[in-house]
Amino acid sequence: MIACMMLFSTAMFAEKGDTWLGGGFSYGLSSDYKNFGIGVKGQYELLEKFRADAMVDYFFRHEDVSFFDINLNAQYLLGEDDFHYYPLAGFCFLGHSENALGFPSTFKFGFNLGAGAEYNFSDKVKVYGELKYQIVSGWGRIIPSIGVMFAL
Q1: Positions of E strands within the chain
Q2: Mean pLDDT, the chain, whole residue set
Q3: Fewest beta carbons less than 10 Å away: which of 3, 35, 47, 61?
C-alpha cells in the first residue's frame, strides 16, 4: 500500500492528465443498516490508463445511524473509445454517528475494493456506475453508486 501511495505522488507530478469533477448518489448496504447518500467526486489521470479518484459522501440518517466517508482510490481503465470499465482499490476514512445532531462520533480507517464503468457522452460529460466493498472493522458494507462527471 505504501508503494502505491509513493507511485501516486511520483506520477502526479510526472504528467498532467485529464481532471474531472462531479457527484452522484450512493446506497450503503449492510445487514445492520442501509443509508442513502450523496457525494462529490474528483478524478485525475496520472498515466494513460491509470488515475486517482477521490470521493466524499454523506449517508443520511436512517434508523438513527448516519455515515460520512472520504475515499481515495486507484483505477485502471479498460475498454475503448467512449466506454470504459475499471477495477478500483484504495483507502477510506469513515465517520459513524448515532447521535441526534448527526455529527460523526466514531472514526475508522479501511480499504475499498470494487469495480466501475463509465460512458463518455462527449469530451466534457460522462456518467459512471460503481460497486465497491468497504472493508472497515465492524462497519463493512457494499456501496453501489451512480453519478455524472464534468471535465475541467
Answers
A1: 19-29, 34-45, 50-62, 65-76, 78-80, 83-97, 106-120, 125-135, 141-151
A2: 86
A3: 3
Instruction: Give 14-65 pLDDT, tens digit per residue.
Output: 345 789 999 999 999 987 778 899 999 999 999 989 999 999 999 988 777 7
Q: Which three three-digit cell numbers place residue 62?
A: 436512517
Of residues 71, 81, 92, 70, the one with CA closest to residue 137: 92
Burial of residue 15, with CB atoms counted within 10 A of its CB: 0-12 exposed, 13-18 middle, 19 or more buried: exposed
Residue 139 and residue 120 in contact, taking contact as beta carbons nearer than 8 Å = no
| Nearest in space to 44 (alpha carbons), one of 5, 69, 15, 24 | 15
Q: CA 131, CA 144: separation in Å to the nearest integer?
A: 4
**Residue pair 92/109 in contact by the 8 Å Cβ criterion:** yes
Instruction: Give the integer Cα–Cα distance in Å for 55 and 110.
Output: 14
Look at residues 73, 72, 71, 69 and name the one whose alpha carbon lies nearest to residue 95: 69
Distance CA 47, CA 52 (A): 10
Does the pLDDT at position 1 exceed 50? no
Q: Give the three-class secondary structure for 12.
A: helix
If we measure between CA atoms, which residue out of 119, 114, 141 comes closest to residue 27? 141
Cell numbers 464503468 label which residue?
117
